[in-house]
Every structure is written in C-alpha cells, then in structure tokens.
Fold:
Amino acid sequence: MEFDERRPRSEETCLCFQEDHLLLREFQQGVCLPKVEELRASFPQLAAPLLERFTWGDARYQLHECLESFSPPPGWRWSRLRQLTSSLPTELFALTATAFQLLHWRQTRRYCGRCGSPTVRASVERSLRCTTCGQDHFPHLAPAVILLITRGEKLLLVRSLRHPPQLWSLVAGFVEAGESLEQAAHREALEETGLELENLSYCYSQAWPFPSSLMVAFSANCRGGKLRPGPDEIVEAAWFLPDRLPTTPTGLSIAGRLIADYLQRSHRRTHE
Ligand SMILES: [Zn+2]
Structure:
C-alpha cells in the first residue's frame, strides 16, 4: 500500500465506510467495490468526505467516511467488515482491512492526545499533525501473539469468553508494554492455560483490522505445567487429536490458517 498524492480521479475505486460497514455494489455473481463515479451518480447528495487516497497493486483507491445512516437502494448493500472475512477473496479482504485501519486512525486521532488541539493531515509525513504542539500521530498498531501449541500429535485449544460458546480457538493475547513477542507468548500461555512452552518458533503475521491489531503467530511445544483455564477470559482448555477437532475458526483469520497448516502437516505424517 502506498499513499497516493496525485490528483483524485473519478474512475478510482471507492471504499466507503459507515462505522464498520462497507458499501458494496451487488451484481449477479456477488459483490464488488464501486467506482467513485458510480457512487457520485447514485448518491449525489451523500455526505461522505474523502479521507485518504492510496494505491494497492496497480489500482488506485479512495477511502471515504460516510457521515449519515441510510438504507441503500436495490443493487447496493452495507456489509459488516467482520462478516466479509468468510466471503471475500484474501487479497480483497487485505485491501478492505487496510482501509478500515486507516479509517480507525483518522477517527481516533482527530484531536491531539498531548494537548487536545485538532490535528490535520501532514503533507510530507504520513501522519496526523497537531495544529498547536506539532506532535505527529501515526497509524496506531496493537501487536498480539497467537500460539499453535502442540504436545505430540495433539493440539491445544481454548474456549474464550470473547468468542461464541461452541467455538474453540488458539491461545492469543496483546503484547504488553516492555515485553518482547517471545515474552508475551510465554506469559499468555501460562496465564490462559497454566502451561510452559519450549521450541517457540515464529510462523507468520497478519494485519487484523478489529480495530488495529498486528497478529504474530508462533508454534511451540508444551514443556510442562498443569492444564487449567485462566480465570479471567478462558472458559475451557483441552488437548485435541487432529481428527477430533471441535468447531474452530475458518476463513481468513490467522487462527484458521495456523490450524489448517497443522492439519495438513498431521495428514502428511499419517500418510508417509
Ligand atoms: Zn498537540
């Protein structure tokens, strides 16, 4: 993603959000992002100021914040971003996720947290700059670790108060001030499950726009400890064999990808 400083053009594609809902154009095979000219033609009076312009691959995009609530006419729909994780292609979801993080940045940094004055978009730095004290406010990211913990063939899953009751997922949590990613991984495992880890190894990471996380995935083996769910947010923690997994996250989440990769490795081992 590159911020685009060139003159806006009407054939650019439009990401128009109202809160966490994205305005989409419907067609027979599904949905797509509208062009700016389509939006203007269909909703000439719409209060939806342009916040940012950026390029993604070869295409140019505009981010708009819709300031009014309205029911779209036939052929258009509002879609909640979180629901799009299961229906959009990976690349299109990554684009909308990026736009949503920029929107969150613009919405939460309208005023300087240091002196309370309004901010304006800086022309050179990609920041929101305070009009009084000059403080730069860059897009905020909250790093979090997510852990694929195994013991032999078995996978550790937890049920969390944050998720629907039937959904089991992986141990995860935000990195605290002063911590390394590795320290956060060991602390989260201990807090949520009572277990100690060994062979902690980085897998991959993913920007996750709810609202501005950077999810960093690790795999690890259980070294020891007594399995017990953490008192604050974990309802249940248990080991599962790969062919006996309960309902787990799917779609584009990093938890879904980690579990799919674990199942694939386990399947390969079984058939070797
Ligand atoms: Zn300030």
Q: What stands out?
A: Helices lie at 36-42, 81-84, 90-108, 181-193, 254-270. The mean pLDDT is 91. The first strand starts at residue 2 and ends at 3.
